[in-house]
Design goal:
This protein is α+β, with helices and mostly antiparallel strands and about 60 residues long. About 30% of the residues lie in helices and about 25% in strands. The chain has a single domain, classed as Ribosomal protein L30/L7 (Ribosomal Protein L30, Chain: A, 2-Layer Sandwich), CATH 3.30.1390.
């Protein structure tokens, strides 16, 4: 699997609880925070759910 860097680019204020939990599951929580993870199908699904809040860059 390829590694990717996921960066939160928008705030979670006034977002549904499910989106907030997804952001927390990805290891994010504050704007401009980044994590490097393996791009598994589970991570792809989480990124798709909050795609408007994060950016993904392949390493």
């Amino acid at each position: 699997m390829a590694k990717v860097r996921i960066t939160q680019i928008r705030s979670t204020i006034k977002r549904p609880e499910t989106q907030l939990r997804t952001i927390q599951s990805l290891g994010l929580g504050k704007r401009d925070k980044s994590v490097e993870v393996e791009y598994t199908p589970q991570i792809q699904g989480m990124v798709r759910k909050v795609s408007h809040l994060v950016s993904v860059k392949e390493l």
